[in-house]
Amino acid sequence: MNHIQRRTVLQGLAGAGLLTAVPAFALDPLPNVTRLIAGFPAGGSIDAVSRRLGDFLRGVVAETVIVENKSGAGGRIAIDVVRRGPSDGSQWLVTPGSMLVIYPHVYKKLTYDPVRDLLPVATIANVPLALAVGPGAPESVTDIKSYLHWVKSNTASANANIGTPAAGNITHFLAFLLGRSGQVQLQHIPFRGSAPAIQDLLGGQIPAVINPLTEMLPHLSSGKLRVLGVTSKKRSSFLPQVGTFVEQGHPTVVGSEWMGMFAKPDVSPRHVERMATGVRAALRTEAVREALDKLALEPADEGGPQLARRIAGELASWREVNRVLGFQMEE
Questions:
Q1: Which of 254, 223, 247 is nearest to 143 (CA)?
Q2: For a Cys-Cys bond, which of 100, 174, 179, 240 suits 114, CB 3.0-4.6 Å?
């Protein structure tokens, strides 16, 4: 699809009521190249989402859209690339939320300020998170209540071990909140990513994990993995039969990862509006929604101001959680 056709898509969306109006820039000359900076390696969900968005945005926000993987330091390198980069609208950050709402509380030395150094453009997707058990837990463990009862039956054993994809991110904090709510001392075991955590769960080396659903769903049919609860406020459309932690008596165990797009604060409002409109239009197309569905991601529909309010609220809530947890990281 060329850029003229893509602009026709935007105009069609506006006519259908999906966009409030065709933006004034709809027929402006496009920049030659823009880059989506992804903070994680090729093959992961951030990379996959960035590339699917880039396919749609080509011809909408620029003649050429390139995805650049600036991986390392848990997503912090990509943030530094964008905040130190040009202000001409040629670089845009695609990142999970933990880097912005949790990292400021756990890293003693952080090179960026999530509010001062980055401008929210749009929320791309919500990432459902869940607690699952594997062969290391008995078959009698089928929900949060039975899981906590089993852990309490022998807290000195490996029963209390709970894995997450990393230390100092939202899954780590949710594991802490679960232990606090269930009045049990869970032993946090951080892994280097979601896939290794699931691998050890399936192998019985660890009894439970809190992980993104995308890594869990392929293993449900085998029966080796059982999802006990989701951490979002509402049930996930991917597992509607599984209750939330709130429904199962743990109202404080709530939180979801998300993916958002950001720019430098001094990027022209015109460039930001063009990108925000393009992203939100992309999220309404069948191709992008199917791509998100394959990754067990839920498309979001939040513009920059809504995302900014979300960040402010989550910064405050996770600050309070870490005040109690007291977790710190040097690097």
A1: 247
A2: 100
Look at residue 237 and tell me if it is in a domain: no
Element (H, E) at 287: helix 286-294
Range 93-107 average pLDDT: 95
Report the mean per-residue pLDDT for the chain. 90
pTM exceeding 0.85: yes
Question: Over the stretch 293-328, which tens digit does the pLDDT of each residue have?
Answer: 999 999 998 999 999 999 999 999 999 999 999 999
CATH number of the CATH domain containing 98: 3.40.190.150
Q: Where are the beta strands (DSSP E) in the chain?
A: 33-38, 64-69, 91-96, 119-127, 129-133, 161-164, 187-190, 208-212, 226-230, 257-263, 298-303
Per-residue model confidence (pLDDT) at position 253: 97
Domain with 111, as residue range(s), is: 3-127+257-325
Three-state DSSP class for 228? strand
Residues 227-237 pLDDT 10s: 999 999 999 99
Nearest to 88 by CA among 299, 280, 270, 324: 270
Whether residue 211 lies inside any domain: the answer is yes
DSSP secondary structure string for all residues of 65-118 = EEEEE---GGGHHHHHHHHTS-SSS-EEEEEESHHHHTHHHHBSS-S--TTTS-
For residue 15, pLDDT over 50 is answered with no
**Is 291's pLDDT higher than 90?**
yes
Examine residue 282 and state whether it is found in any structural domain, yes or no: yes
The 10 Å Cβ neighbour count of residue 326 is 7
* Helix, strand or coil, per DSSP, at residue 250: coil
Q: Edge-to-edge strands of the sheet including 119-127?
A: 64-69, 33-38, 91-96, 257-263, 119-127, 298-303
Give the CA count within 13 Å in the CB-facing half-sphere of 265.
Answer: 8
Residues 9, 123 within the same domain: yes
